[in-house]
Here is the input.
Amino acid sequence: MNKHSKDEIKILSAILLLVAAIFPFFLISLFNHPSADDFCYSSKAIELGFLGAQSSWYNGWSGRYFSTAVLSMNPLVFNWLDGYKYLPIFILLCLFLSFLLLIRAATGATLYVKKLIFGALLFLLMYLSEMPSLVQGVYWMAGTITYQLCNILTILFLAALLSLKKMKSRKNKILYFFPAAISAAAIAGSNEVSMTLLILILLLFILYDLKEKAEIDIFILLVLMTAGVACYFVISAPGNSVRLTHFPESHNLWNSATNSMTGAVKLVLKWAGAPPIIPVTILVAPAAAKLVRQNAATINVHPLISTASFIALIAGSLFPAYWSMGEPPPDRALNVTYLIFLTGWFLNFYIILQYAAGKKISFFKKWPGYLVFPVVLFYFAGSSFLNPSNLVPILSDLTRGTAYKYDMELRNRYKAIEKEKGPVYEANTLNNRPESLFVGDIESDNDSWINRCYAFYFKKDAIVIKTTRAEGRYKPSD
Here is the structure.
């Protein structure tokens, strides 16, 4: 067997191993169910229609015009409850494809298809296994559309921006300008964290151009202008002032800035010490060094500047929460920050290798083949035992049958609600609450906002959890 055949077997084996590790994230989607805000967004769209719902959200709660638009067209609006199960599968596939396109845009034609697939799968596994809240990032629709779909758009935006920068002719630049501008408008209208990162990323691109060429790429400037208009539309939404009344500690600039910066440093140190980072960095080091030697992507930035920019982006992703709420961001927003961390970590590592090569420091030419699988196994062992990853509760929910029983309980509840002829339905408390899927459920209080959305969706006056206490039972609202 020649060397090429051995390399092919190694890369195929690695791909199969990664697919096997990622498969449970897809499988558990089949037991997923809507909860909380999912029913509220759906009920609003059913009650007011698509355009009416957009007006209501924009004027009464938030300027996130893109995410609310997508949420107003979700499967529940069309009475397709089973369609909810396929949304995470769609999101996971889109994440994989976006990572693939980003790596392709960053490395040019230097990596062949199998290596691109390996890199995208590895990045996807690292992200899924360590993201701060898997359930809010993938399996809960309201969080998924607001943040994870926007993450996908951000990755595609970066891929389009990198491709635009590489194009020489105006005609070719235009081909990438439109995807970049459209994705920028969608990102700005999804959530404030990604909107802030969008502006910071564009400013970094412009500063790099000024440093290298003493001029600004007109297409990048046009994308920034598009993003600026979109940001203004979000910020000027009347609904923002309504939402801010819930957070009296908001709009403290000094506290927001200091908390964001200290929080960024803490998160970088925390995530850099997590089991996957160092082993995977070691694993990809030879490939990254080879790209440096091939001049696949030249980034003329000093490592100190790139590190400072990296931390600034992390801090920028934390700032909107401290500014608008006066408190740390929720885990679903930290999922965005973690994606920026992963991307920035490996980009910064590449810049360090490039800087070392410029100083005639040569290393990471090739790891011995026998070290590859021990490194991968250490990654899985570390993720499972030293710092349990998100894969552990998924495997637990699948193997113990918790996810299946949860699915059956809710299916039976839906059937019972449909059969109930009266205006009120009292549901049993869920006995199975899989950690990897469960977000929340209705309560015994019919005045709970969750209960009201739930009841409206199922065309009931009220739906509550059964209780033996008289004061906990349904009471008609005044």
Q: What stands out?
A: The chain has two domains: 22-397, 412-472.
